[in-house]
């Protein structure tokens, strides 16, 4: 497989982002570098990282090894990272990016995203990095500590990163149409990409339509749904969309795996996807999506599985794991 097999999509800014990337959330540090190298060897050129994943140094090691081995050049890669919640204040945005660049051993990012529309009080790098969700994990009742930081101030600081040549494109994660509309009202550099949870149980058609009309590209994280959350006890095996009879029937008819059917559904909806795996055979499987198509009936049948089921919801995991009710979705 070569990178020629992995198409790109043109963003409103004129950049070209590969439609399949390797999601790096939850990949353990000891295997991250090898996984990145193997993914690049398999033809991946899009890496989706974040400060909060706690493995950006290892991602940087993998990138360096791949470039040194001649598997790719830096310019052929699309590297995404994300601004964590504790760095929303204007004075913290650039230092947060610079720490990410240092860890990744890069001079610039292709895409930098606001990770959540949630501002938390700052935690210094020397105290804890990445700071994660809890303000003081050693407190008697550890909780998140919200900060009063308007999103427009954070966005203005993100725009400065573009102006300074440190970032090619900027965008947001976990926004709905209301926050996107607000951002578009004040943005000098409109968000180029929205990254959201999206799979057949959470299709979000109105949000996708709005983004299409506003020329905002959409990236789907957790494109296979429950499979991303089993190890976190945030989903059960019974909730796996790949076990749905309609998916199994389509996979059997097309001679594809159920996962390939679901990932192809995501691609045909016009989203980019960032599935996560550490297994070389799965890296190949997850990218082998462009020599078959789903029919209109197949697409409709898979979309009909929608149950508005969100696995990654701060209102749920915030209260369960961090003693803080933090809703961002109605």
Which helices and strands occur, and which strands form pairs?
Blueprint: E1 8-10, E2 16-18, E3 22-23, H1 29-41, E4 46-48, H2 56-68, E5 78-83, H3 90-104, E6 109-114, H4 151-163, E7 167-173, H5 177-186, E8 193-197, H6 205-213, E9 217-221, H7 245-254, H8 258-268, E10 272-273, H9 280-287, H10 296-303, H11 314-322
Parallel strand pairs: 3-4, 4-5, 5-6, 6-7, 7-8, 8-9, 9-10
Antiparallel strand pairs: 1-2
Helix pairs in contact: 1-2, 2-3, 3-4, 7-8
Our Rg estimate from Cα atoms comes to 19 Å
- In terms of per-residue confidence, which ranges show pLDDT below 50 for 5 or more consecutive residues? none
**Helical run tally:** 11
- Rounded average pLDDT: 96
What is the fold named in CATH at topology level? TIM Barrel
- β-strand percent reads 5-15%
Distance between the termini: 42 Å
Kindly give the count of domains.
1
Query: Architecture, CATH level 2?
Result: Alpha-Beta Barrel
| Largest beta-sheet details | 8 strands, parallel
Lateral strand order in the biggest sheet = 3-4-5-6-7-8-9-10
Structural write-up:
The chain has 330 residues and is an alpha/beta fold. The protein has a single domain, classed as NADP-dependent oxidoreductase domain (TIM Barrel, Alpha-Beta Barrel). Helices cover 36% and strands 13% of the residues. It contains eleven helices and ten strands. It has helices spanning 29-41, 56-68, 90-104, 151-163, 177-186, 205-213, 245-254, 258-268, 280-287, 296-303, 314-322; strands at residues 8-10, 16-18, 22-23, 46-48, 78-83, 109-114, 167-173, 193-197, 217-221, 272-273. The protein has an eight-stranded parallel β-sheet. A two-stranded antiparallel ribbon has the order 1-2. It is globular.
